[in-house]
Specification:
The protein is an alpha/beta fold. The protein has helices at 4-34, 62-74, 90-105, 121-132, 149-161, 180-202, 218-224, 235-245, 266-286, 288-292, 298-308, 312-330, 335-338, 340-362, 368-384, 386-397, 423-429; strands at residues 51-57, 81-86, 110-114, 137-140, 145-147, 165-174, 214-217, 249-260. The chain has two domains: 7-46 and 144-430, no CATH class; 51-135, Spore Coat Polysaccharide Biosynthesis Protein SpsA, Chain A, CATH 3.90.550. 57% of the residues lie in helices and 12% in strands.
Amino acid sequence: MLSVYTAGIIAVLLALIPQIIVYFTYTLLVLKSRSRSVGLRKYPSRSAHDISFIIPVKREPLEYIERAIKRICELNVPGYEIIVVSDDDPDVKGSILEIVKRTRSSGCNVWFIWRSVPRGGRTGAVNTGLFASKNPYVYVVDVDTYLEKCFLDIATGILESSEEYACVVGRWEPLNYDSKLSAALAVALKYMATILYRARSRLGLYTYPLGTGTLFRADYLKELLGGWDERRVQDDMEIGARIMHLGLRVAYVDECAIYVENPSTYKAFRVQQYRWAYGALDTAITRIKHVLCSKYPLLVRLEAYLYLLQYIPQVLVFTGSLMLALLQFITPFDYLASLYPLLVLYIVALVLHSLVLYREIRLATSSLWNTLTLMGRLAAVTNTISLYTLHGTLKAIFRIKMEYKRTPKGVYQRAYTEMRVPWEILLGFI
């Protein structure tokens, strides 16, 4: 039987080792993103044309839908089409149709599809739009995002320059700073874009597509991949794993931004992170052969698979920390002191990463105090959400199906929902 002391040592290892690895890795990646010796690849730019923009909607604010349509129209892409695919209830269909008619009358080439049977959730809606589209390029648009025209120009040039590219990914940038939470998530988004995309691209690692912010070849999606897998929750990672398996490439464009709306409320953030944690591990489990048996070099394959496990360190740290707290009720003991060399290494990693994080956030803030406040807020919300990333991870491990739940936007972020037990607060007392 496992002794209390052994359990305490295991808890310390779970709490510290993942953080040490992540902090050192993130520090090196940020430094690499600044390196001038290894630059990002420069791609040809041509005029974007013949793009099908697919907008999947369900319980989205009507003003968001209309705004998304108008923004695309204003890009003036020759030969474009917009396909709005709705999974809404029949009583909402008419309101969306009115928006489509109104924007069509002003010159927008927009079409509307209402699915009476919303099979496959959001992914099914995207597939419906894909196979209804007629253009050689496809771009999936969330209603809370908008993109710079230069991205489409560069992405079109890349796809026309070589058939080895299946898609092109743009750089995510935060769109809103309207709440204390969204301001913290905004700087986190900029930081993670630096690590997960700019730095990894510099190193020649595999780039996964983004759910919104990716221009695809329509023929590859339809003929080689058969669309997105409607059984998977994280459609961008899933399609990326299958693209990798075919030996095709994904280009990353850092010059132009894709602006995305961050959650403004804790409820919206909790829904988003729960889904992402489940979806990432679900893809890792179901697409392991696609990644590890692909035609890419071994190190690239291994790193691409570890990328799918990005929520595991957070889950392990939360589990170890919870174990340490509970063990104090059984036998009060300083288990960290038993592994003080590891604790020292953790402190070194934490200090280095904090300095790097501070410098990155300071670039986007007006004062030292604001920077430190955002860092503290970000640390707090990351720890608070760990319970739900654990929940999503466990559901993926035990293959419990999760229904796709969209991140609430606009007024839906603050809409009333059923009462729930505030587990994060209760665990905080421990």
